[in-house]
Structure formats: C-alpha cells, structure tokens
Amino acid sequence: MVATQTGERWNAAFVSDMSTPTSIVVHGVTHRFGKSTVLEDVSFSIEDGESICMIGPNGGGKSTLLRILLGLLEPSEGRVEVLGQSPREACRSIGYVPQSIRFDPLFPISALEIVLMGRLDRVRWGRYSRTCRTVAREALATMGLSDCEHRPFAQLSGGQRQRVLIARALAAEPRILLLDEPTANIDLSVEEQFLDSLQELRRRMTILLVTHDLDVVEEMGDSVLCVNRRLHRHSLPLSPETVTEIFRGGRRLEHDRRTRHRQGDHSNCVHE
Amino acid sequence: MTEFFDALRQVPLLRYALFAGIFSSLAFGVVGSFVVTRRIGYIAAAIAHSILGGIGIAIFLSRTFEIPWITPMGGAFVAAVVSALIIGLVSLRAKEREDTIIGAIWAFGMAVGLIFIHFSPGPGVAMESFIFGNILLTSANDVITTALLSGVVLVVTAFSYHKLVAVCFDEEFARLRGIRSELYYLLLLVLLAVSIVLLVRLTGIILSIALIVLPAATGARLSMRLWVIMILATLLCLSYTVTGLAASFVLEMPTGPVIVVIAAAVYALVLGWQKLRPQS
Predict the structure, then answer these.
(1) Which of B172, B179, B226 comes nearest A108 by C-beta?
(2) B225 CB near a chain A CB, below 8 Å?
(3) Domains and their CATH numbers in chain B
(4) Looking at the partner chain, which of B39, B176, B226 has a beta carbon nearest the beta carbon of A91?
(5) Of the candidate ranges A8-22, B145-159, B166-180, the one whose mean pLDDT is the lowest
(6) Residue A79 clears pLDDT 70, i.e. is over it
(7) What is the ipTM of this complex?
(8) Which domains are present in chain A?
(9) pLDDT range class, residue A21, cuts 50, 70, 90
(10) Which residues of chain A does B217 touch, with a Cβ-Cβ cutoff of 8 Å?
C-alpha cells in the first residue's frame, strides 16, 4: 500500500538533522481545568525515531496531553520542549492526525484539497505553489491514494479518510507524527493495511500514537505511555495485570480483536 | 416580458435595480457558499435582523442633528459589522453562550431600530422598504457602492480562499499550521455582514437570509466541490435576481418576495428531483 519510492522526501527529512536527538521532553507537567486536576506531575521524553503508543481510560488526560504537546494548551505547571523549542514554535514540525469522525462528512472538499492544508503556511498571494501541489500528491501516493485525489471527502471510506488525514500531516514534512486514535473508526478488514502504512512511516519519523487498541500498541509501539492523570511508562508486551491496573474503573476495551476476528469470534472482549 | 425590456431601456431606476442585483449576486453566491458549508445560517439571520438597529440610529441621528452624510445604509453597514464581530468573538471565546448572544442581537437590534425610528423627527419612515426590500429605490450611487463592495468581497475571498476553507473545515489544524484562524473566522463573518447589507435593498431584512442560503444550498445539492458550488450559487443568484425583477415588474408584485419564492421553488425542485431519481 505504501509507495516507498515516493517516501524519499520524508526519509531525507528524518535522517538529515540529528542535532536534536530528543524529540519531546515533558517535565513536571500538571494541568487543571478549574478545580479538576487532569494531569499531575507528568514527565517523559521521546527520542528521535521512537514509536510510542499512549493509552489510558477516557478522561485520563490523553487528549489534554496531546493538546499540550501541540501547543494548543498551556500546562498549568511544568515544562514542555518539542525539538528543542516550545510546542507553539515547533508545531509546524509536527504532523497531527486527528480522528476522521470529528469532521463534517458532507463538507465539499476533495482529498487533494485536504492534503494541501498541510502546506497552508506556504500559501502566497492566495495560491499554493507547484511545489506544494507536488508534495501533496506525493503524500497521497505514499498513502496509496493517488486515485482518490479529486474524490470528495464524503465519498471516501473511513479508512481512506484516515489515510487522507495522515497524508495531510505528511505534506507538512514533519519530524514528528502525532496520531489520535487513527484506527478507531476503521473496519478490521482495512486496519491491517492501515497499520502497514504506519509501519513504513515508523522507519522514517518519530511517532506518538494515542490508541485504545492493545493490538495496535503491540504492533506499533517501542514502549507505551499509560496516562491516567499520572503517567507511567511500560515496555512491551503489557501483562494482563498491568492492563487491569491502567484501565481500572471499568471500560470496554478491545484487544486481541484481530486474532479473534480471524478465528471467527466477532464478540468484543470486555475488560472491566 | 417585452414590456420589461422596453422599461429597462426607458426607466433608469429599473436599470439601476438590475445592475445592483447583478453586482450583489456575485457576493451572495461566494459568501453564501461558506455560510451553507460552515452551517452558520443562524448567524446570518441574526446579523440581518440587527441591521434595523443601525438603520434606526442612523435615521435618528441624521434627522435630529441634521447630518446628511449619515445614511440608513451606512448605519446598516456599521450595525452589521459590529454584530458580526460580537457574535464571532462570543463564538470563539464562549461557545456555550453563542445561542444566547445570537438571539439577543437578533431581537435587540430590531427593538433598538424601532425605538429610534419612533423618536426620529420628521415624516414617517417607510419601514417596509427596509424590512421587505425595495430595489426600485436604488440610485446610481447605490449601484456604484454595490459594485465596489461586491468587488471587495470577491477580491478578499479570492486571496483568502484556501485559509477560509481550512478554517471552516478544520480550524484547529489551520491554527497548527500557523494560521490565525480566529481572525479568518471573523473575516468570514465580516464578509457575510457586508453581503447582507447589499441584500437589504434587494430582499429586505426578513428575507435576506433566503438569498444568502438558498442559491448555495441548491449548488451544494449539485456538487461536492466548494468552488463549483460558489459558481453555481452565483449563477443561480443572478438568474433569480433577473427573473424575479422581470416577473415582479410584469405581475406588479414586490420584487424581494418574488425573488425568494423563485429561489425556494428551484431548491425544492432540485431536492425533489434528487429524491425521486433512481439511486446509482
């Protein structure tokens, strides 16, 4: 699915700058919304080239932490550095992939127009340059979506939409890729292909992936950050006891989905 | 219909009305497409109704203090832009209060306008022309003003198109790319405010929302590309304006409502055709 011959752009971007070996440094971050503490004394670092998964229960602070890393939110306390800069200064070096489900599916926009948004800061006199269009097309090709260039977003499948959003992030030529539950709205039948695409990108850039799917964690992660107000880092694989501890409080979890799906078991595995 | 074309040649007011309608349609089609896709029709309606406040204050000031350069349309322009900015800022900073502010501006604007008109000295004010529109009151200066304002709307939209689209589709991502998405959202509302002021002459305050929304909504049923929707909306607006002006002249009916009825009928036809045609 991934056209490796067009990946040279992002491969080159990854290799060229080794002067900042640590991509992300978070030190003593605490964040409160009113009187409610969502994150407490969170500290971790992510090295260049690592692929890290972030898991945790709903309301545990994953989205808040993600927004802090993107510079969309200032932490109440603590320090964050992304590529040696503040998150706001570094945000253009980050490729952010939100969930496709939060967009208006009827918005009249094509796949190429969405991907071009990754080059929005390069618009001059109201126009995208030829280079921007070339990069956008290469990003689409990397995600195997060259045929969908002019197709409306509304006519794409869930998996295709998610890949368009990844292509958009790639068009920005990022050093770091942040993905927020990229497999949440994808059928299992396409999830494997989708993860193959991510595996290819994993060789080229630093990845931080938020997910509820432990299958994805085991396939994608070098290690896992578990966020539930506080943060704990675990190496893989996670033991059942660790998973129980992380998701204490009752939550419907999906793990071993793909193995059970292949074996004909389509039920959800409830992890309380 | 030949009497309409004869009248066009002989009656300057009718020509002014036609040209004003044509020029303003260019702005409606473009801005209306953003309104429909961004789903801010309710904001457009609130801005339109608040215009009466500016009109009333302008009439009161010009008559009470004998200031000839304060015109009702000038007052409408100021009120529309101020309302747009207030709604925009509340929408950006306190989203949960957006509905309340929209309702307040809607009602307060109309109430203020009626009060100031009530206390304005001099002869009675022809409220109907503002509320329901009267394009036949268009002067040559109005045509020039309409052309200039429409031109400004089109030029600004052309230079800001990609950023406006990004802000409408994914405001957060636009911000991450270094775009001041709040400013572009406010810009969109100001462009909307200007377009609505252009509409007051044509359809009046009450019916202006119809011509902002209906042509673009019809275009959106026919295309999934925003720039195509804009072209369709502009062409539809032009045709409604010209057809409505001609029909109202021949049938001796008020122009604004005729235009809106045509727009609504075409939308209903397109909707019906799409529902009834076999699904591929």
Answers:
(1) B226
(2) yes
(3) 2-272 (1.10.3470.10)
(4) B176
(5) A8-22
(6) yes
(7) 0.87
(8) 4-262 (3.40.50.300)
(9) low
(10) none
Contact A65, A227 (CB under 8 A): yes
Question: Residue B194: how many CB atoms within 10 A of its CB?
Answer: 21
Cα Rg, chain B, nearest whole Å: 19
Chain B residues in contact with A96 by the CB 8 A cut-off are 173, 176
Quick one: tokens of B237? 């607006």
Residue with more model confidence, A8 or A213: A213
CB atoms within 10 A of CB A161: 23
- Residue A221, pLDDT > 90, answer no
Which two tokens mark B135? Answer: 């394009």
DSSP one-letter code for A124: B
Q: Which of A202-211, A241-250, B187-196 has the highest mean pLDDT?
A: B187-196
CA distance B76 to B62: 14
Name the minimum distance, in Å, from the CA of A119 to any CA of chain B: 8
Question: What single-letter amino acid sits at B212?
Answer: I
Angle between helices B41-64 and B72-93 (to 10 degrees): 140
Residue of A123, A124, A132 to mutate for B, most B C-beta atoms under 10 A: A123
pLDDT score at A267: 44
A108 touches chain B (CB under 8 A): yes
Q: Does residue A47 sit in helix, strand or coil?
A: strand
pLDDT one-digit tens code per residue, B182-226: 999 999 999 999 999 988 877 888 888 888 999 999 999 999 999
Residue A226 has pLDDT above 50, yes or no: yes
pLDDT (tens digit per residue) in A100-116: 777 888 899 999 999 99
Question: B219 to chain A, minimum CA–CA distance in Å?
Answer: 11
Q: How far apart are CA A242 and CA A225, in angstroms?
A: 12
Nearest chain B Cα to A70, which residue?
B176
Q: What is the mean pLDDT of residues A174-183?
A: 90
Q: How many residues does chain A have?
A: 272
Asked if A129 is an interface residue toward chain B (Cβ–Cβ < 8 A), one would say: no
The answer to whether B160 faces chain A, any CB pair under 8 Å, is yes
Q: In what order do the strands lie in the sheet with A22-33?
A: A36-47, A22-33, A77-82
The alpha carbon of residue A121 is apart from the nearest alpha carbon of chain B, in Å, by 6
Is the CB of A94 inside 8 Å of chain B's CB atoms? yes
How far apart CA B45 and CA B117 sit, in angstroms, is 21
CA distance to partner chain B, nearest, from residue A117 (Å):
7
Question: CA angle B82-B99-B34, nearest 5°?
Answer: 65
B176 in reach of chain A (CB within 8 A): yes
**What backbone phi and psi angles, to 5 degrees, belong to A263?**
-85, 0
With H, G, I as helix, E, B as strand and everything else as coil, classify residue B225. coil
